[in-house]
Design goal:
homodimer, 305 residues, eight-stranded mixed sheet, six-stranded mixed sheet, 8 helices, 14 strands
Chain lengths: 305, 305
């Protein structure tokens, strides 16, 4: 059993049937079009769990709060949307007292303010381990959302930033890589640029490693992909970190051939790494050889933090 | 530290500042008004946690799935809204394999279909204990949501159904009371009736016991309340169950004096139990004596399931 199979089974049993529901399970966000509204709304939900995504001993409460929201914002960025508000569910163990809670919300609200996101509600409960689940709602003009399903053969594959930093940080526990693991920067401005200016054909955020995430994008688009240019690797990280490491929260996107993609956007490198092909859906090759999807899958991997 | 204090501290640090955000922390749902849209959207998020809200040994997966959604739908009912779609985050321990997951979603989707709610997405992860967090979005015409803050002195206080059944069921583990605990029926139709026809002045759902929930409604409205008529008690339950027991998921509401409230709505009894007064905000009296708020508070109580 892996996560893709659980999600696939669920999709067969559900469908975006509600009036206004234009995209259901299977992308970074669900899309809802309120009747009469100018904009569409996108929704994502993302858990951050003690001893899976962080450890109480090594992660400060403000860092956990920041990251809880950052993960949700990264999904909003992947759709090319502007984040609007969030709700937070927080299950707290005994050890998380009032000072911990204050600092946690401090970190979360700091990132929320940076992106003008309102914390609009949520739920609180006690539990044996700490878990936060963030819901973020974003908005964008009707019919313009960047989806995983839009890649076509001949499109070029790009990635933002450098990959493998968070995985290296998790191993080493120090330096720029550790900070990268602790404090991801959701690529909201880049997402807007991809949607409005570059009109990217598909996009998603890199949360589980490009080998797994690119496969997911290809499956949704019904295409395969060939990685035939050097992948930008975070300083000090290995190619394995970059290919299979999770939590980079960079954007993976495709553009139609002929699209002029600048070398950077607001200082963030944009690197062409491959091409979309018409082959078997979901197949990814690295310089001509099949690339196994070894990214982080919650239902296959047990290594945790 | 109790839940009310955590929420109050959080409200001081946040405010519904996002464009279109008309109600933030402190009610059953947050309210968002998409620009140009005819309707407002309401959002709620609600956790259901192993060994806090249920036990794997005594609760079947389909019952847990049903209840996870029912709790969210109950908040939607309290606003007088029509539910539209939901997202589910599910943290799964090792013991919850594929059959368990299938049955869990079976129970959730059965209730979703009854109310034409689309499961539009969510998140999956592994964790040491099982936790589900449901997000439900509902809609209603602008400016018509039933809020906790609308009660005024002289209004009458009503409750739907009979109280204390879920608390009795939790104790006894059998009969109609146990089924009541297992399978709450969210009062969606009643919520619509309260908003459209009775034009209730305030409403909320009874999730933590009326002694605590009515206090919360009074605090939001800046009023006190006097319970001066018999409270409808679930067959076999005690007055203590009815006053302080959680998870009844009935609706508590207030109406302006002179409002004609029928004895039942679609077979569900509606009972007048008290009157709103101008006294100290949050004070609740039962036949002239102060009623202590002993309902379930996650941050004060440790008894669990």
């Amino acid at each position: 059993m892996d996560e893709n199979r659980i999600v696939a089974a669920l999709r067969r049993r559900t469908a975006p049937t509600a009036r206004g529901m234009t995209l259901g399970i299977g992308d970074d966000c669900a899309i809802f079009r309120p009747s009469g509204a100018r904009d569409e709304l996108v929704f994502t939900t993302d858990m951050l769990i003690e001893d899976v995504h962080f450890r109480a001993a090594t992660h400060r409460p403000a860092e956990i709060g920041w990251k809880a929201l950052a993960r949700g914002l990264s999904d909003i960025a992947a759709m090319g949307a502007t984040p609007r508000f969030c709700l937070l569910s927080l299950a707290l163990p005994e050890w998380a007292g009032s000072p911990w809670i204050q600092r946690f919300y401090g970190g979360l609200l700091k990132l929320a303010q940076l992106h003008s996101v309102t914390l609009a509600g949520g739920d609180l409960a006690h539990a044996s381990t700490l878990l936060c689940d963030i819901v973020v709602c974003g908005s964008l003009p009707r019919g313009t959302a960047l989806r995983r399903a839009g890649a076509r053969p001949g499109d070029f594959v790009y990635v933002s930033g450098a990959l493998g930093g968070a995985a290296l940080g998790l191993e080493s526990g120090k330096g720029a890589a550790w900070r990268r693991h602790l404090k991801p920067e959701p690529r909201i401005a880049l997402g807007l640029y991809l949607r409005e200016t570059l009109r990217a054909s598909a996009a998603m955020d890199l949360s589980d490693g490009i080998s797994l995430d690119l496969k997911r994008l290809c499956l949704e688009s019904g295409v395969s992909a060939e990685l035939n240019e050097p992948i930008p690797v975070f300083h000090g990280a290995t190619l394995d970190h970059a290919l299979h490491g999770g939590e980079d929260y960079e954007l993976l996107f495709t553009v139609r051939p002929g699209t002029k993609v600048p070398a950077t956007h607001a200082g963030l490198p944009l690197t062409r790494i491959g091409t979309i092909r018409a082959g078997k859906p979901g197949n990814v090759a690295l310089f001509g050889r099949p690339l196994a999807a070894r990214g982080y899958d919650h239902f296959r991997d047990r290594t945790g933090v």
